[in-house]
Amino acid sequence: MSGFGNFGARAYVSVGVETGVSSSSPHALILMLYDGALESLRKAIGCIEANDPLGKTRALSRATRILDEGLRASLDHKAGGDLANQLNALYDYMLRRTMQAGIDNDPAPIMESVRLLDGLREAWASIQADSQVAA
């Protein structure tokens, strides 16, 4: 995922995720994307439970844009090889499940995406923690 660079920062800004993009490392930007997607997915669940279709649509739209234009777009398929391909497939799966959840007004597929993203975020955060311990 090292090819994040300027495109990733622009994608991050374009999906409305806030704060310090220009001064953040590529690693920190990915964490922000995970956080933004998770926040939006959790908000969508709350909107479904509160019978707020407009809020649900906005939250799901933001989450899908972060997944697609942020996380998927930041993958470096050349350097990342199989891992990048597997992440791409997982992001695609989450996108499809999330869109279907919006159509069906069902929070269960969104909860599944939250669990998957939480695991990815935790693993990504541990990479930074591990590299700081090794330094």
From TrEMBL:
Membrane-spanning ranges: none
rRNA-binding keyword on record: no
InterPro entries recorded: FliS, FliS_sf
One GO term (biological process): bacterial-type flagellum assembly
Chief localization: cytoplasm
Keywords carried by this UniProt record: Bacterial flagellum biogenesis, Cell projection, Chaperone, Cilium, Cytoplasm, Flagellum
Gene Ontology CC: cytosol
Pfam families linked: FliS
Subcellular location: Cytoplasm, Cytosol
Family: Belongs to the FliS family.
Protein name (database record): Flagellar secretion chaperone FliS
